[in-house]
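Let's sit down with a protein and look at its sequence and fold side by side. Please make up or recall a protein chain and show it to me in full. Label the sequence line and the structure token line clearly, so we can match residues to local backbone shapes. Go ahead whenever you are ready, and we will take it from there.
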Amino acid sequence: MRFLCIDLGDKRTGIAVGDDITRLASAVEVIEVPRERDGGRALIDAIARAIEDQLGPRDELVLGLPLNMDDSEGPRAKMVRQFGMHLGERTGRTVHLHDERLSSVQADWEMGRTGMTHKQKKQKRDALAAAAILREFLAVRGHAASAENPADDPE
């Protein structure tokens, strides 16, 4: 199964895709549609276009959930949950929420020695953060599947 991951931002939203067979995730694009424009409809429409371009009919979505470092949820996490509900209704897709803590730090680390300018990094950061969220989601999903279906005991 393929997944499209969304790192929701106020001005820029990162998009990444990956699958649970290879557990690889790749940054795809940054959508520069403000989240608040048209009550979020313009952003959901832009994400829906990315879904049509990247996914098959049974594939699913992952949305980064901004938890606090103590695992609590603040106002932003509640907003993301609501956005995910609207996105699922609009697209007819399953939306998984996954912890996005430190995904931007991971993206910055990946770009650290690339020689990119600050402006170039700013343009790629959100898509790379989405890829980091998706890699973690796929790793957790793969680990859970392995625990449910352990290899036959050789003894």
Helices lie at 41-54, 75-91, 103-111, 118-148. The first helix runs from residue 41 to 54.
